[in-house]
């Protein structure tokens, strides 16, 4: 059996009881390390699970799926995913390959940012399409996310923005020379995401949002030191959200009374927030 197991959001103890049983029954345990990071290191996972854990980098999963799946028709293999297995789409490859090899697959879910973002007080049913923000480079500043935000905003829905994570990235030079030397990991901050959002609004000028649009920045959701702050995009430019991982929600223009209430609780500047709520938002009771 191949178990694809969600680890939850925060530390080694967020795994479900079912997930833990599967890990303990597995001969080999892999931890995917490319779509997200857990806030603890591998050693703590190994101590807690009582199993050796192999980190599976993007190359491993894509090029060595047969190695991961070796003998999995006879033994149990666990593939651990931070958050929920289907929070990101990348694992589908492994699951399809398992089916081709006749290896049964079982998924064990856990929380991911896609539902934990409810901690902002914004209702999950009132979210539209989720977008991913990638780090801009000098020559690559993709703005396709802008249309998604615009569509969501046209019908008053919130937009969850997942922020870029760069682990095991090679510099162009190292890639050309085929040297397996990696740059230090980079995690996009709320501030960087807002800068990029405002740059694209400036360029497109279609009012998908403005510097006065309300947004909620979050970091380390699910951990004891999570931060949730609501304010205008401009205000969030300067809030320090601390260590990774960060995410951002652009607040839609239709708000329920209770959603507005939680925004107030997390306001960077309560007076300013109230002014903008009154001026730009429709609040339903
Ligand atoms: C695989 O896991 C299941 C459920 O935990 C267990 O019942 C089964 O004995 C395990 N198989 C092996 C070969 O360890
Ligand atoms: C992050 C998260 O919500 N993890 C959950 C995973 O499942 C266990 C229950 O088995 C919860 O206790 C965790 O909170």
UniProtKB/TrEMBL annotation:
Pathway: Protein modification; peptidyl-diphthamide biosynthesis. Its EC number is 2.1.1.314. Keywords: Methyltransferase, S-adenosyl-L-methionine, Transferase. GO terms for molecular function: diphthine methyl ester synthase activity. Residues 1-236 form the Tetrapyrrole methylase domain. The keyword rRNA-binding does not apply. It holds the Pfam family TP_methylase. One of its GO terms (biological process) is methylation. S-adenosyl-L-methionine binds at residues 9, 84, 87, 112-113, 163, 221, 246. It catalyses: 2-[(3S)-amino-3-carboxypropyl]-L-histidyl-[translation elongation factor 2] + 4 S-adenosyl-L-methionine = diphthine methyl ester-[translation elongation factor 2] + 4 S-adenosyl-L-homocysteine + 3 H(+). S-adenosyl-L-methionine-dependent methyltransferase that catalyzes four methylations of the modified target histidine residue in translation elongation factor 2 (EF-2), to form an intermediate called diphthine methyl ester. The four successive methylation reactions represent the second step of diphthamide biosynthesis. Belongs to the diphthine synthase family. This is diphthine methyl ester synthase. It comes from Coemansia spiralis.
